[in-house]
Design brief:
This protein has 491 residues and is mainly β. Helix content is 6%, strand content 43%. The radius of gyration is 26 Å and the shape is globular.
Length: 491
């Protein structure tokens, strides 16, 4: 009998030792590494070489920080969650954060209000996404793939407030949209130079970038991203910005490539300020039903707001080019400083081409655009009339003022951009550039998207002095109708 009791007791002890424990850092103002946590709680994190395994939930207290600054893999057990009240930094050359078992995803990350988050050069996969409740958030040069619902079910990166920085990442093939914010949030993110492809694998009626209202004084910036759809996901759109609760929309959508989605860009609700400039919006027609979607750009509001400025976009191969609904107001050229120069080609359905469908009572200024792009030859006004739906077709609708037509200037897909160059790169004291486009200003941005310097350049000027610390920057060369963005390394 004693032997049986002893054997049972040994089994019980062995079982209790194997149970993983949740761990909360002690909130003493200390910076922790994963090694420190493993030493403090061996049942929470185990170590084998450069592989670290998280077996319990991890909470980073508000006065503490966790730093991952060496190359490693963090394997997280199923349904486990990392919650950050303090600071969390990943800053190494190659960090992989993944599920211990890909068939049992971990819960993901929850970044609480007032936490400070900076994630660089990481692969984040097979988890439940990033729930970002803080306004101090940046993620750069990371890969986020094969994530599912968990900490967030709205988007892989679900934002709540502030000016988050999302730059140079690859976000692909996740169950939910790539980037999102709630209808009652005020988020002005800087979303720059990301490769976004095949997200919303759940195939719900959501776009790959799905955002609500913005801050009033700071613009949402969606710049130089590539947003590619998956033909199998006919419900997934490209970009949507919605204002349903009386908030603000202050946004700039510029120099993006949006291809193969259900639709390209849709703006829902009134705007305060909106610029859609120099984007390539192509073949957003995968659902194939013109009643449900397929617009290159759709502006739809039941409440009058500010005018949306649309210029220098290349819009082709969609079921509709631009559709306007409700009380939407847009300026497509010929009013204010908008010179137009949008190019339309092969946007149509059921045998009819629709470059612009004005289903509003508003008069739309739309001068100096190329409505039928056949290699630079201006179409006749009669030919243009055939691809625009407005007052002429239905007297209850507003007029589209499209004369004069101009197909002489190339738009966003001008291949001669490839001939523009600047040098040297890396840079020491000066950048030189062949100013073949008569650019008028040079803007230099830091990796977090903040403008560092702006210099107005004169006709014929082809050099700019650079006096910056070593690091990676982005340079915009621009004039009223064209912008070229280049990466720049300063030694």
């Amino acid at each position: 009998m004693k032997k049986i009791i002893l054997s049972t007791l040994l089994v019980f002890l062995t079982f209790t030792i194997a149970i993983a424990q949740d761990y909360t850092t002690p909130n003493t103002g200390v910076t922790w590494t994963l090694d420190d946590i493993a030493a403090a709680s061996p049942t929470t994190i185990t170590i084998s070489g450069s592989n670290y395994t998280l077996l319990g939930n991890l909470n980073i207290a508000e006065n503490d920080a966790v730093v991952i600054d060496s190359d490693l893999s963090l394997l997280i057990d199923g349904e486990k969650l990392i919650t950050v009240f303090g600071a969390f930094t990943v800053d190494s050359n190659a960090v992989t954060i993944t599920a211990l078992n890909e068939a049992a995803p971990y819960e993901g990350f929850r970044f609480e209000e007032f936490s400070e988050i900076n994630i660089q050069n990481a692969t984040i996969q097979y988890g439940g996404g990033l729930r970002v409740l803080t306004e101090t958030f940046s993620i750069n040069n990371c890969t986020l793939t094969n994530n599912v619902s968990g900490a967030t079910s709205s988007a892989v990166i679900q934002l709540s407030q502030g000016l988050p920085q999302i730059t140079n990442n690859t976000i692909s093939f996740n169950e939910n949209p790539a980037i999102g914010s709630a209808a009652n949030s005020a988020v002005s993110a800087y979303i720059f130079n990301n490769m976004i492809e095949g997200n919303n694998t759940a195939n719900s009626n959501r776009p790959q970038i799905n955002l609500g209202p913005t801050q009033a004084a700071e613009p949402l910036q969606i710049i130089q991203n590539t947003i590619i759809g998956d033909p199998a996901l006919e419900q997934a759109g490209g970009i949507a910005i919605a204002n349903f609760v009386g908030g603000d929309i202050n946004a700039e959508i510029r120099n993006n490539t949006i291809n193969g989605n259900r639709y390209g860009i849709t703006i829902l609700g009134p705007v305060n300020s909106m610029i859609i400039h120099e984007n390539t919006i192509e073949d957003n027609n995968i659902q194939g039903d013109p009643i449900l979607g397929g617009s290159g750009i759709n502006i739809n509001t039941s409440t009058a707001g500010a005018t949306v400025y649309i210029a220098v976009n290349d819009i082709r191969g969609n079921l509709w080019g631009i559709t306007l609904q409700g009380l939407a107001k847009v300026n497509l050229g010929g009013e204010g400083n908008n010179e137009g120069h949008n190019r339309f080609s092969e946007n149509g359905n059921n045998g009819q081409v629709y470059a612009l469908y004005n289903n509003t009572p508003n008069t739309i200024m739309a001068k100096y655009n190329c409505w039928i792009d056949d290699g630079g030859q201006d179409p006749t006004l009669e030919e243009v009339e055939d691809v625009i739906f407005h007052m002429v077709d239905d007297p209850n609708l507003g007029e589209v003022v499209f004369d004069p037509v101009d197909c002489s200037l190339l738009g966003a897909t001008d291949n001669t951009v490839d001939n523009f160059s600047f040098y040297p790169n890396p840079v020491k004291n000066e950048i030189n550039f062949n100013n073949i486009f008569s650019f008028e200003k040079v803007e230099i941005y830091g990796i977090q998207g903040r403008l560092i310097s702006l210099e107005t350049i004169s006709e014929g000027q082809q050099a700019v002095t650079v006096n910056l610390p070593s690091g990676l920057y982005f340079v915009n060369f621009s004039n009223d109708s064209k912008i070229v963005t280049k990466k720049m390394i300063v030694e």
